[in-house]
Amino acid sequence: MPVVETSIEGIKRFMNQHAFTQTQSNRGASATSQAPITVTVTGAAGQIGYSLLFRLATGEVFGQRKVNLRLLETEEGAKTAEGVAMELADCAFPLLANVDISTDPAAGFKGANAAFLVGAKPRQKGEERSDLLAANGKIFAPQGKAIGEVAADDVRVLVVGNPANTNAGIVAAHAQGVDPKHVTALTRLDHNRALAQVADKLQVSVTDLTNMTVWGNHSATQFPDVAELKINGEPAADKLDAAWINDEFIPRVAKRGAEIIEVRGRSSAASAASAACDHMRTWLAGTAENDWVSVALPSDGSYGVPEGLVSSFPCRSKNGEWEIVQGLELGDEQRQRLNKTVAELQDEWDAVKAAGLV
């Protein structure tokens, strides 16, 4: 996919304008001489957390800025997290300032500049969706409350744990004082999967492709949309036949997670962690010129998605703020697919409200 414009410089510029840079005197200092930023990762002992932490410690996401990692785990996962912390120490990463482990959200999120909420309760065999939503609400509501109370004022939150969109809505509802647009959910994985499928179909590089869009929920109802897709700046839709788009591309991207579980025997981990890195890095450094990425964030009413519902949209980042791309025309079939995934999101949110979780 396109490399974000001067990625490291973009991150430095953002940090010099926001609370990631903590004092005026730091602004002229080198990145490594500035105070470390604090990054909280929940579910740190799990597979995604494990894949994510080492990449955060290398400078891949936050540039040449030292990082304090906060590993927030359950009581059961704390010992495994200790082993992960030992491995992080053994890597001797120059940019890793410190690793703390906590089971208390108030301690784990204290002063956090960025938070990756990875830990979630997976759906069990025979379990109803409403049960899963209720169980995860009990995880994400107190985390949102703690973020609102103790995290940095301009904390950036990315929810990875599923159902990610609705979990992000729960966090945003409880994170008092945090800008709702600073609470997002991960659909960059779906975006990356869509790029990879098209690149393979057309035998081009993913870096040749721009303006991919994933709408709606991070679920099987999601709508990967190639209507605005470009190859080296030229429209790509006419190079992809409708039968392939409707019968192969859309269902394969939407069900890719299940396909990986079937083949690998485990859910996506490294690819989810990679997408989480992409999401946060692009958020801070900005999107490439004439491109956008897919981000799930609270709707402002754009494209008829009910206000406040956490849905994936085409977004650009500028100065560390996501903006929903405006003015895209949706045909009847696009509108039908968007309405279907939004209806699922609304059902999930209604179930959360009925359970008294928000």
From TrEMBL:
Residues 328-355 form a coiled coil. One of its GO terms (biological process) is malate metabolic process. NAD(+) binds at G43, A44, A45, G46, Q47, I48, G49, N136, Q143, V160, G161, N162. Keywords: Coiled coil, NAD, Oxidoreductase, Tricarboxylic acid cycle. Residues 187-354 form the Lactate/malate dehydrogenase C-terminal domain. GO terms for molecular function: L-malate dehydrogenase (NAD+) activity. The keyword Cytoplasm does not apply. It holds the Pfam family Ldh_1_N. HAMAP family: Malate_dehydrog_2. PANTHER family: MALATE DEHYDROGENASE. Belongs to the LDH/MDH superfamily. MDH type 2 family. Catalyzes the reversible oxidation of malate to oxaloacetate. This is Malate dehydrogenase.
